[in-house]
From TrEMBL:
Pfam families: HECT. The lineage of its organism: Eukaryota, Metazoa, Cnidaria, Anthozoa, Octocorallia. This is HECT-type E3 ubiquitin transferase. The keyword Ubl conjugation does not apply. Residues 49-60 have a biased composition (Low complexity). Residues 35-65, 222-284 are annotated as: Disordered. It is an enzyme of class 2 (transferase). Residues 363-725 form the HECT domain. InterPro entries: E3_ubiq-protein_ligase (IPR050409), HECT_dom (IPR000569), Hect_E3_ubiquitin_ligase (IPR035983). One of its GO terms (molecular function) is ubiquitin protein ligase activity.
Length: 725
């Protein structure tokens, strides 16, 4: 009995102790601080235990128990498994600003805005310009939606009669893939038209907007109808010509209500609040930098419209056509996408020139046939990648590079080449000859030039290089950007029609002799320099007088020497090269639109940057609220930081390497990609690329940026070109 009473007493005592503990916990829990560390947990225990000493003796046992229930903050800390993402590593370049210059065209609202409308061209574009509905705009990449809208409103304020601070109601337009039309892109309710999104929408050409009110003066006869070969029955008519004052304008609908004007903290000028969002349903903010309807140059003040129809082309200035539009027309005129004709090319990466030239010099080679490439390793084993665009882009890139660097037909800087009769042979030969008399060297060298030139010409290599460049451009490859201005002028304007450029002389000894003549100060000094035996031989070959009769003839002598060294001495080889450019009508296009082809055949100073590469890829994220979405967003942040490191030289990888790995091209092709490049995700350790569908997969595995960066660098450095197909 005594034992039973003792057990009962112990049970009652424990029950009372638990009741007191629970009561104290409920009372003190709101007063306890947030528990964020073991030290705070210890302090919370001491607070709870000291508060209970005045209640009952049994409460002192709280300090002796390790499993006492503490406040909910402690429970959340103990049970939380949430991964804390590392902070985004910032570099000084992360805050760099970029100003992008764009042509902007404001079209009139249609009766049914949901339908696509034709891109204004020719006379239609000219009427918009007369009404003040076209212009140029500079967009800062860090601007928010309000600042962009304010800048556009200020540009068109006079055309619409807007007062100071008044905002023009308009919607942005984007190109319809595969067509030459515009539509209103669908966007989610939370989507913001910040500067980066606006730039991406117009990344390859002009920016189009549709005003939701009529201008003070509507363009006369503004129908924006298509040309004869583009017309169809479902094109909407635009508003008829009329003149409306500010009072006559129709009232805005709820979705068109103008936003209140506020002051921008960045610009210090009127802008718009973000209370009202644009009407839409879904849209990916990062669209392709290159598609089928715009140009490939992202930052330019001279971007223009896509290719016109054949009927309108004859009455429109060539300056209104873009390179991509010109190439698209050449492709449509020559290449049948649905044809069964194929150029089946088997090639090794290390022997591209050898394997490709053998194929292209065949009698049955058809430059108009669709290119289908299969790469093989040095053992001859097929890589197995199905060519749906990726292998073709890589092949054309490697082939153009080989034509420039390994064919032995060009001489000079790699991005400023001039044509010599097998320049490789010339340079090697001159190293072996040490005659002191320049005249003998010149004569002997000319003999050797002829030997090498005859061999290369007999093989058809000079004409072949011209054919390769045309073939590449029409089939979606690069143009090379390696011709000198002198060489380009000879192709675009004809041999001898333009003077050679002294900057294209790459032989220092020859350049020194010419500069002596160019900078002679007196007639005697000029004639003394002209007596140089090397120059005398050139003047004799030109049939030119050997001495100057007056000082004013100095420029004529310089031009004669330059033209001989760079043009006349290789005239018959230039003719072979130009003959190769006649393939598929490319030579006629170059001579009709020389300015557009200059940017793809000669050195282009436009360089890739992190923003440009980021905008090339369309990010495919999971839906909001899914478990994988936060991990994907972290990977996208790492991806953009990685691009910035590549741009700033903080990585062993360049932005060109990234593009080669993902697309096979080191630059956005002049003709664009045949599908929108996509950025998706993989659970693997390393990035991979679907070379056929232009899709780059980045890893989700890494929670730290440095680990992600190491994985990206390892994969790209150890890939011969593409990621895994």
């Amino acid at each position: 009995m005594a034992a039973d009473r003792e057990a009962l007493s112990r049970t009652i005592s424990e029950a009372v102790s638990r009741a007191v503990t629970d009561a104290l916990t409920a009372t003190l829990s709101p007063q306890l601080p947030r528990v964020d560390s073991p030290a705070a947990i210890s302090q919370a225990r001491q607070t709870l235990s000291s508060a209970g000493t005045s209640g009952t003796a049994s409460s002192s046992r709280i300090r002796e128990q390790d499993n006492v229930r503490l406040p909910s903050a402690f429970d959340r800390l103990q049970n939380s498994h949430t991964h804390v993402q590392p902070k985004k590593r910032r570099t000084q370049s992360c805050i760099k600003q970029k100003v992008v210059n764009k042509n902007i065209i404001c079209v009139l609202q249609t009766d049914d805005p949901s339908k696509a409308i034709p891109i204004p061209r020719g006379e239609s574009r000219a009427r918009l310009a007369e009404a003040g509905l076209t212009g140029k705009i500079a967009i800062n990449s860090i601007w928010q939606e309000a600042e962009v809208r304010c800048e556009i409103s200020n540009l068109f304020a006079s055309a619409f009669g807007l007062s100071d601070g008044e905002v023009l109601p308009f919607v942005y337009l984007s190109n319809v893939p595969g067509g030459r039309k515009l539509c209103i892109p669908k966007t989610s309710r939370s989507f913001k038209w910040n500067a980066s999104e606006v730039i991406s929408t117009a990344a390859q050409g002009s920016l189009y907007v549709m005003a939701e009110i009529p201008p003070l003066t509507c363009p006369a006869a503004e129908k924006q109808s298509l040309s004869d070969n583009e017309s169809d029955g479902d094109q909407p008519d635009l508003q008829p010509t009329r003149t409306l004052s500010m009072i006559q304008r129709p009232a805005a609908t709820p979705t068109e209500t103008r936003r209140p004007v506020v002051t921008s903290p960045i610009l210090g000028k009127p802008t718009i609040s973000s209370e009202t969002n644009s009407p839409s349903t879904s849209y990916n903010s990062y669209v392709s930098l290159v598609d089928e309807d715009e140009t490939t140059v992202m930052i330019s003040s001279d971007e223009e419209e896509p290719m016109q129809s054949q009927g309108q082309e004859q009455r429109t200035s060539p300056d209104l056509l873009t390179l991509q539009a010109i190439l698209m027309k050449l492709r449509n005129d020559n290449v049948d996408e649905h044809s069964h004709r194929r150029s089946l090319i088997n090639v090794r990466r290390k022997h591209v020139w050898e394997d490709a030239s053998r194929h292209l010099l065949r009698k049955k080679f058809d430059p108009k046939a669709i290119i289908s490439v299969k790469f093989a390793d040095d053992d001859g084993n097929s890589e197995g990648a199905i060519d749906a665009g990726g292998p073709r882009r890589e092949f054309l890139r490697l082939l153009i590079k080989a034509a420039n660097e390994h064919a032995g037909l060009f001489y000079g800087k790699l991005d400023q080449r001039v044509l010599f009769p097998n320049a490789t042979g010339m340079r090697n030969y001159e190293k072996d000859w040490t005659e002191k008399r320049t005249k003998k060297i010149l004569k002997i060298s000319n003999i050797m030039f002829s030997i090498y030139a005859i061999a290369a010409r007999a093989k058809g290599h000079y004409k072949l290089v011209g054919t390769i460049i045309c073939w590449s451009l029409v089939h979606g490859g690069p143009g090379g950007n390696f011709f000198s201005k002198t060489l380009f002028d000879a192709i675009a304007f004809g041999i001898g029609t333009k003077d050679a450029e002294i900057n294209d002389i790459h032989d220092n000894e020859v350049l020194e002799k010419i500069n002596k003549v160019k900078f002679a100060n007196t007639l005697d000094e000029l004639n003394r320099y002209l007596k140089e035996e090397y120059l005398q031989c050139i003047l004799q070959a030109q049939g030119h007088s050997l001495q100057a009769s007056c000082f004013d003839e100095k420029s004529k002598f310089v031009k004669a020497i330059l033209n001989y060294v760079l043009v006349d001495s290789t005239r018959y080889l230039l003719e072979e090269l130009i003959d190769g450019f006649k393939v598929m009508g490319v030579l006629d296009a170059i001579r009709q639109y020389p300015e557009q082809f200059l940017e793809v055949l000669c050195k282009n100073d436009t360089k890739l940057d992190a923003i440009m590469v980021d905008l090339i890829f369309e990010v495919h994220l999971a839906e909001d609220g899914t478990n994988i979405r936060p991990t994907q967003e972290r990977a996208v942040v790492f991806w953009r930081d990685f691009l910035q490191d590549c741009c700033d030289g903080e990585s062993a990888i360049t932005l060109a390497d990234v593009l080669i790995f993902a697309t096979g091209a080191s630059q956005p092709p002049p003709l664009g990609f045949n599908s929108t490049p996509a950025l998706e995700f993989t659970a693997g350790k390393f990035p991979t690329a679907n070379t056929c569908g232009v899709t780059l997969y980045i890893p989700l595995l890494y929670g730290e940026y440095e680990e992600f960066k190491d994985a990206m660098e390892f994969a790209i450095q150890n890939s011969p070109s593409f990621g895994h197909a």
